[in-house]
Amino acid sequence: MIDPLGSFRLDGKVVIITGASSGLGERFAEVCDAAGASVVLAARRLDRLEQLASRLSNAIAVRADFAGDEAAPRVVEAAVSTFGAIDVVVNNAGISRTVKAIDDTVEGFRHELQIDLVGPYDLSIRSAKWMIENGRPGSIVNIASVLGRVAGGPLPLPGYAAAKGGLVQLTRELASEWARKGIRVNAIGPGWFESEMTAESMFEDERGKEFVTRGTPMGRAGAPHELDGALVFLASEASSYVTGQTLFVDGGWTIV
Question: pLDDT digit string (tens) for 87-100?
């Protein structure tokens, strides 16, 4: 019997999700849990993570601030000590600052790169090292952005755009390095989705909402569930022959 949906399941898999305390990260955790995975929830706000973990079938909460160097080793150690494995990493944690480049500081720019690009790199290489040493193939899913391909236009986001562009290229590089080690590395490039990070600057502002609806060929922002399929596809064996790719889920934003 052919079961075309079976390969999308995550039963028996251990999934690390960063930035899981709110927004898209919280949704990603719920989706992976529903697909059968054990989930490691990582973010700064431990109280929110613990509330989320209590609603899931098999999850742990780990306080991790990717502005520092201690977050990645803590998360990897927690995953292995609790669940005995790492199968999937979803690099979702990030920040976004709306600031014109001419008004920005090197310190602010560097801080944004640390969280949005260096943090995912650190967690990816530590997780990949464990996978390789233990002969366990895995999947890394980086959460990039349409701003990894195009500029922000009227939105001045130099640090965020630089980090997400770097993450898209890092996805290709790591995929190339680890392809024969059984580790796939892909990315999702969301368009405009309402979240805690985008609410004030975009969706609670009439000009922001107009910017989204006017520039998106589908004429609207994305709904949280519209990233579910891309996430499960790239995390699971359904994408076993896919690596180094960025899947833009953006209502057509990057095609015009």
Answer: 999 999 999 999 99
Q: Which of 73, 72, 70, 27 is nearest to 52 (CA)?
A: 27
**In whole angstroms, what is the distance from residue 208 CA to residue 205 CA?**
5
What are the catalytic residues?
160
CA 110 – CA 90 distance, rounded (Å): 22
Do the Cβ atoms of 163 and 116 come closer than 8 Å? yes
Global pTM reads 0.96
201 close to 98: Cβ distance less than 8 angstroms: yes
For the chain, list the domains and their CATH numbers: 8-197+224-255 (3.40.50.720)
Close Cβ partners of 206 (under 8 Å, ≥ 6 residues apart)? none
Angle at CA 241, nearest 5°, toward 30 and 24?
A: 20
Q: What is the pLDDT of residues 217-232, one digit of tens each?
A: 999 999 989 999 999 9
Task: Tell me how many helices (H) and strands (E) the chain has.
Answer: 8, 7
